[in-house]
């Protein structure tokens, strides 16, 4: 996987679409943070980390729109059983109440905190938050998140890239393990 991400990151024409696909997965189906995959991709394209962040943002917002649609049109047959399996029904109820009280602020917070993004976006769809408010809150919050990550990668600079290249395999294994542990912990805590 590391080699694939690295090759996609170095091949200019595939960097954006690969980042967009990862952003879409994180915004729609993957319920835990994917930074262990995003950071090496941004570091490999150091000078273009902002572009990678923009593609991540676009993919993530599209994934959020998918979950908004699931909440709006498929809440009972799809979202509610999924939330039960993941053990996040309580979080869904919390998100629904918060979003109903203040849609923009609550959606913004869902986008920048560890709260499951998919749960919040599905709740917004189920409640019927207006699409412009939804898009503004989600785009701004996820934009802050990805641009901050790109800024960090840019700030750390070439030294980090050299370190990453020298220890690529160990970093990928550690990142993948962290990814799995975080996912298991979130599913367990649910």
Give an account of the 3D structure.
The protein is an all-alpha fold. It has one domain (2-189). 86% of the residues lie in helices and 0% in strands. The chain contains eleven helices and no strands. The protein has helices spanning 2-10, 12-28, 35-44, 49-73, 75-86, 89-101, 103-112, 117-127, 131-156, 158-166, 168-189. The longest helix has 26 residues, at 131-156. It is globular, with a radius of gyration of 17 Å. The mean pLDDT is 85.
Properties at a glance:
mainly alpha, 190 residues
How are the SSEs ordered, and which strands pair?
Layout: H1 2-10, H2 12-28, H3 35-44, H4 49-73, H5 75-86, H6 89-101, H7 103-112, H8 117-127, H9 131-156, H10 158-166, H11 168-189
Helix pairs in contact: 1-2, 1-3, 2-4, 3-4, 3-11, 4-5, 4-8, 4-9, 6-7, 6-8, 7-8, 7-9
